[in-house]
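Archive entry. Fields below.
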Amino acid sequence: MTDCFIYDAVRTPRGKGRKKDGALADAPPLRMAKAVLQALVERGGFDNAEIEDVILGCVEPVGEQGANVGRMAALISGYDDSVPGVQLNRFCSSGLEAVNIAAAKVKAGDVDLIVGGGMESMSRISMGAAGGAWSTDPELAWGTSFVPQGIGADLIATKHGYSRQDVDAFAVESQARAAAAWQGGYFDKSIVPVKDTIGVTMLDRDEHMRPGTTLEDLAQLKPSFEMMGRNFGFDAVAIQKHPEVEQINHVHHAGNSSGIVDGAAAVLLGNKEAGERLDLKPRARIVKSATVGSEPCIMLTGPAPASRTALQKAGMGVSDIDLWEINEAFSSVCLLFMDDMGIDRSVTNVNGGAIAFGHPLGATGAMLLGTMVDELERRDLNTALITLCVGAGMGTSTIIERV
Amino acid sequence: MAIIDYRVEDGIAILTWDDKNRPMNVLSGDALAELSAGIEKAVADDDVKGIILTSGKQGVFVAGGDLQQIESLGSGPIDAEDLLERTGAVLSQLRRMETCGKPVVAALNGVTLGGGYEIALACHRRILVDQRHAQVGLPEAGLGLMPGAGGTQRLPRLIGVQGALGLIMQGKQLGPDKALDKGLVDELVEPEDLIAAAKRWITESGNPTQPWDDKRYKVPGGGADSVTFAQTMMGSNAMTHANTFGNMPSQEAILQSVYEGLLLPMDRAGKVETRQFIRVLQDPTARSMLRTLFFSLQECQKGARRPKDVPRFDVKKVGIVGAGLMGQGIAHVTARAKIDVVLIDRDLASAERGKEKVAKALQRRLDKGRTTADRVEAILSRIHPSESYDDLEGCDAIVEAVFEDRELKARVTKAADAQLGDAAIFASNTSGLPITDLAKASSRPQNFIGLHFFSPVERMQMVEIVVGKETSQETLAKAWDYILKIKKAGIVVNDSPGFYTSRVFGTFISEGNHLLVEGVTPALIENAAKAAGMPMPPLGISDQVGLGTMYKVAKQAEKDAASAGEKWEPSPAQAIIASLIEDHDRWGAYPPPKEDGSPRQPGGFYDYHEGGKNLWPELGAAMSRWIETASAQPSVDLVRRRYVFVQCLEAVRCLEQGVITDIRDGDVGVIMAVGFPAFTGGPFTYIDNYGVEAFVRDADELASQYGERFEPPKLLRDMAAEGKSFYA
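PREDICTED_STRUCTURE:
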């Protein structure tokens, strides 16, 4: 089978996902996509008509993000009319899934050069805007014991005994690592500033971070899902599904869960020949990827089984991975992943994660992949595994290796 | 026409529904055919400009659908296509009425429920008489059913989804003020103005188009594409799932019907509802609930098992001995039924305290507007506290409600006996002591009977009527006459320790203990019980009842064994309770005070604190001596099945031993008295629906795993072998 190489990976800084003060909120979301798609071509110095498809993840594909933002992004970026585009939705791993599917096309020999990535404006298109049957259709909601994902995160903490202190400590470390990474300039070469129509920079730095956050700061925050869980029946529904639990310990809040932000990311992938022809230097290759389903009520336990599947299919073991990147949707998800895989915090999310930066739903997967490529190079290491928990009970994992 | 009279007045057709063959009008195929014919006649008559639909029954418009028709579907499979066609016909008739081109007014002269209100919803205006008894609503869900004549489609379109779901899912009935406030009716009038008001509306506005047939129509509060609707559905799904544990198909079906139907035109929305309606009927739950909680309960409320040939006995004066919690409750409900009460306790002060408690209970009802000051006054004036048995003279019945102490009960029996005439009956409210034994203290054991009331007496409808060996049929009949007069429902049981309902319930509590000893996680023990439909889980109940009670029983057994020179070993469950009390000073939710009189902190299987309660975290570790190490936790379904099976098996044993003689009593009794899951229709119905043969097979399997308490009794094995079921 053909190898798929990562030739480049760029991302926008993440803007606060709020209309009143989010730096990226006063332009349509496609402007973020335009920034990263144009950057790939400019940095690579090749003709954009070489790109054979643009696959973008987006979780709320309605309104400004509706009607196939893959094609819209290609068009607005000035790509040649011959470059098609498609949008996909694997919820929170959409950005990574876009890369995986793009890679699969390369490996299958269907395309030589392709873009995978994602975008999400959470300020302009709010979470849940796309609606959907899961929570509303009684047959589905009852059959799967639907509860909002924050309840699932709290259920994970309850079942595995992660205390409020445990999840807060994880978050404090995430903020510290994120701040140190910016301080050290680890992201400099991959962040593409977003500019407005008159060429003025809207944002060139992640703006959701709260450097210097302490355990004492976090202790002040009220649990976010307690009221909803207790008063609207969600706790009871979750306990019916997990009857060994007496009551749910609500430990998550805004400070130890992923932030709501805007952002976009794009990854340039291709086979060896395309790189040689266009004089592009391969940075890493996609070793293997896997997505699995898991119990939908607790919802967020998919990363470990997805990672084990990917490792097994790659003929690799846990010890073959140098760096691990698990999306910080909620602290408990990361703690469970580390426990499940038997891995150490020192090699996990080494530069912080979504608790500090925020989680622009459709884009995050591609952002994390780019972060890992940069970090493997910086540390001169070889392998990384990127994984995300996914709504409705799924998990996606991708293994990359430097070349 | 036989059911609906047609006449024309002032150019308005008046259709008067009066089904002479029934005490009340109900929605039936025949009635609907006549209604349709009347509508067509009015439409065809050019001189008729509008139609009024009303009823000839005093205080009742239409009381609902024909429940007998649903019950007659039996327990077998349902012909879905046939039912789809028949229900479809009802829907098209109502649809034709609301699109006939002439304004139709529902002139509601009283009770308008279920199918009756669904007809009213298909009219263009609803005018209701402003009288307290004129209840309006869709109560189907209360019987495990759902509206099937368009109610789940028209009500949300009329008043908005959120309001409609609340009313339909809870089966709420509203009086006139609330019905107007919520938009269920458009206008309230005095009864004598009803027809005039209807005519006036036809003449003055008379819009013959339903709001939902208007092009500019929007669902109040947000339609199918609104965020509000999505949020309402999400919240309702979770709340209902949480509250029903998925045990009530009708609840899910109502939600599904509203969810799927709201965005459709009315012509197509009906079929969405019909599918769900039939789905509810296909599931045994609705038919089981209907049989047990409507038809069988009605028999218990009417005294179907009362000996027929004994003349009716009018109870005018009742003596109640023991003014504690039970005595107060019995005094309350007795006085409320206009019966004079003599309330006796060991001294006058105690008896008066009992009456004060009744006064307080009445005051609470008064504060909530559920009664009037006059009625409270009248009830209290009928309760006469006393310390003298002489005051019992002339009583028609005595209810003994003293502590469960045989000697004390014997003294009360003798003292009361001396004052009683030969016609009077003596009833013990013992919750488990054999009536035949207690009757030995009486000079007239044939007049002695058990009346097992449940707490709180004011709210619990059920009374177990316990017949001792010597109890006469006449006494049984008189006991019936008393409980029917105080508006209770009764089941007849024969004497046996624990009678019927407590015996069945006891097996549930004891199964919880078995699970605990097996090493099943306490949270799973409790959650599985709730999931099975039990109102309270076993460890929680043990705490509520008080661990001291169970402790005393075990101590007594130990003492008895010692005096008989026998060796006695506590069961692991008894050892756990003993240890909770002796080693950890944990007596339950309402502990007795300490020896020095100071209060004791509540605590038992649970810890209690301001925010509520949670299982005592140390339980497993503290009791590890008696708790086996479980290799794996059982599934919640297995634990559920154990709870239900163990109770069903005890119920069958009671039937086999003649403790109960009627399966209807058996089904109703445990649901109403001790919270056996209502959605099952009772233990006998549960076994029938499970399949007797399958039940025996699975009970054998449980017996081989968990002990002989799961062994099916011979009666059940024989039934399985002969392919019989309890009903049928």
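CURATOR_NOTE: The interface with chain A takes residues 229-230, 233-235, 237-243, 245-246, 252, 255-256, 259, 521-524, 526-528, 531, 614-615, 633, 636 of chain B (CB under 8 Å).
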